[in-house]
Write a structure and sequence with these properties.
This protein has a domain of 30 residues. It contains two helices and no strands. The protein is elongated and about 85 Å long.
């Protein structure tokens, strides 16, 4: 039987957060610090990758033969039942 997700009241969450801030729960404070460090490391990685992508976009010349969105032609639509040349609408 699957367990239901527990939901806690806002007062309980405030109480736990106050305990973490005051340093009453050392394990929770350590976990929070570890998560903050990991988030900061991931943000730096994302920033570095964004710079690399931008640099590569600017430094790599695009050959004229590569199609762009503007040069692609839309496919013509085909009817399931083609009209005869003599048929009029």
């Amino acid at each position: 039987m699957p367990r239901r997700h527990r939901s806690h009241s806002a007062d309980f969450k405030r109480q736990v957060l106050a305990g973490v801030i005051l340093g009453e729960d050392g394990a929770a404070a350590k976990l929070l610090t570890d998560y903050e460090a990991r988030i900061a490391a991931l943000e730096r990685l994302v920033g570095r990758q964004a710079l690399e992508i931008e640099f590569l976009k600017e430094s790599t010349p695009r050959p004229a033969a590569w199609p762009t969105r503007r040069t692609r032609r839309r496919p013509t639509t085909f009817s399931r039942f083609p009209r005869s040349p003599t048929a009029r609408c």
